[in-house]
Every structure is written in structure tokens, then in C-alpha cells.
């Protein structure tokens, strides 16, 4: 087992080349040379986490490696984090080393220097920041944080204003302000904050008073032009907000935008469907999550006509007011060759839509079809079961005909 001084040398090299896997693999090789089985387990853990960070979500070995990662953590977490005991309340390993902690502000202010010296900490989640924001904002230790999580800190606009006056925000790369009761005025403060120029990830989800006006202010901010990832899920941005995102001439590097549960209608979604933003989103992730909006059939028609759809492998339209016309549009689209999963749960699709989907070439390529809680009768359900891909498609259709979730006895 490496001494604390030896480990700090490796961690210092990892921190200096944070995005490079090579220093982490060198550390793993060093651990493998040990005679201690715990060191061998740690070396294996580093390599597994590096592999998981690099592979696709549907990689055939992801589940196996994830299970092994979790087994190693369960067995060794306390031992591997023992040198950090008392410096934080919780620790998270990312790409093989501890670089994310949960801590209270008073402890961080008292022992933060030691924490940064002993671990490659980049992300800090404060669970009590709302009560100590002025002290935190004034501390130079905040300048050592690269990813700041204030999720659920109850900041409100006043607390956010205190944070944004801090002179120590210039090196932030990620900021989580979810569940903070923020309003459009608070988000306008964000948009005007020059020190956030290096920010690439911003999480504003579940601030229920945030509307399209606040998002529009973000999209026009010259200080947030570096953003790559933005989460505004479960707010009230509506058509105004998503249209502003789609048409922004400032946020041209965005490739990940989460807009679930925002009351987005057909006008806003049509703007997104025709935008380069959607192209970047689907090229990056292949999955489009639009659950709990109001895009309606016209929104799906707009998407079906968009060449950007060609990159999509999964579409989730749960609870969007879709009817048969939406299914007809998807079936007729020339851009669905890669589609593998289609989620249509909790809409108003009837037998005509189910039959059209079942008898289309699209059905033969889908690995997952979810038409639960629609308006299907036995006829539509049986057609879907009959035409599923290689007889293997995962077909979810409960919540239609009462008590029916599978094929009838007469279905071949």
C-alpha cells in the first residue's frame, strides 16, 4: 500500500493532467506491483472506471463492469477513503480517484486546504450553503473548486446574488443550482456574471418559477458562450424558452440540453426541430427526452420532417398529447433508420396508429416500444405483438384495455 506521501505524488500528477488517463493508469500499474490484494483491487477499480467513462451506454459489457465497480466500492470504499476521514461527509470516485465530495460549509472553510492537498477534488457539493453563503463567497478556497453543486440549498434570488458577487468564481466549469427556488430575475443575474465565462455545464432544473423569459436572458449572454450542457428540466420555459435556445447566436457550443416537463408546445418544438441545436444534441447523445410536455401531433410532424432526426436512436414522447397523426408522421419519416426505442406512454394513440406502426418497416427495427396508457383495444395490441422485431421487441402496452398487457391467445 502506498504511503500518504507516495500517493500524493501520483494524485498531484493526475490533477495536473486531469483529462488524460495516462497518469491514472500509471498509478494503477504501481498498485499492481504491490503484494497487498487491496492495492490490486484498487488498480482494477481504476481501470474499470476509466473503461466505463469511455464506452457507450449500450456497450455489451457495461452492466458487467458496472456491477464489478459497485462490488469493489462496497468492499473497499471505507478503506480507500480513510486518509480523508473527517475532511468531508461523503466521497465520490470518478475515473478511479476521489474528486467529488459532499461537505458542510463550516468544515470546508476550516479544513478545505487539507482536503485539496490530500485529494484531487474538483467537485464540491455543499448541503448547507444557504445558511453560510456570505462566508463561502468570501473564501479563497472557493477558487479551488471547479464544479460547484448547490442543489437544494434554498438560495433564492438573494442567495444567488451573494454568490455571484464572489471574486472566486473565475475557474468554475460546472454549476448546479437545481431546486433553489430561482426566478427569472435570478437567472438574469447569472446571465450578467462575467466571472462565469469558463462555465461549460449549468444545471437549473426544478426551479418552478423559471420561465421562458429567464432562459431567453441566458441565451443572449456573452458571458455564457462556453456552455456545452444546460439542464432546464421541470421548469416553465414553454415555447418562449425553447425557441430562444434554438435560435441563440451565442450558445453555439451547446450539445446537451434537457427540457423535460416544461410545457413546450408545437410552436417551440417546431423551432427546435429545425435548429442546428437539435442536430448537436442528437449527434452527441442519440436520445431525445421530451417527456411531460405538450408538443402534440404537429410537433412530431415537424420532427419527422427534420434531417436531424436521422441521428436519433431513442425517442421519448411520454405524456405529450399525441394521437394517431403523430404515429403516422413517424412511420412515414425518411429519417428513422437508426431508431431503436420509441416511448409513447400516456398519450391518446388509438388502434389506427398502433396498426400503422405495427405494419411499417419501422416496427422491425425497434427493440423497445412503449404504448402503455393510450387508447388501444385488443386489435391494436395484437397487431403490435404480431409484427414485433424478430419476435423479440420489448413491448409495453399495459393501461389500455383493462387488464391486458400481452397478446391474445389467437395471436401467432
Please explain how this structure is put together.
The protein is an alpha/beta fold and 412 residues long. It contains 16 helices and 13 strands. The strands form two sheets. It has an eight-stranded mixed sheet with strand order 1-2-3-4-5-6-7-8. It has a five-stranded parallel sheet with strand order 9-10-11-12-13. A hairpin with a 2-residue loop joins β1 and β2. α3 crosses α4.
- Give the helix proportion (percent range): 40-55%
Give the spatial strand order of the biggest sheet.
Answer: 1-2-3-4-5-6-7-8
- Compute the CA-based radius of gyration: 25 Å
Taking the sheet with the most strands, its summary is: 8 strands, mixed
Low-confidence stretches: none
CATH superfamily of one domain: Ribonuclease Inhibitor
Question: Total number of β-strand segments?
Answer: 13
Q: Averaging pLDDT over every residue, what do you get? A: 95
CATH-scheme architecture of one domain = Alpha-Beta Horseshoe
String of helices and strands: HHHHEEHEHEHEHEHEHEHHEHEHEHEHE
Distance between the termini: 62 Å
CATH topology of one domain: Leucine-rich repeat, LRR (right-handed beta-alpha superhelix)
**Proportion of residues in extended strands:** 5-15%
Shape label: globular
Class based on secondary structure composition and strand pairing = alpha/beta
CATH class of one domain: Alpha Beta
The DSSP helix count reads 16
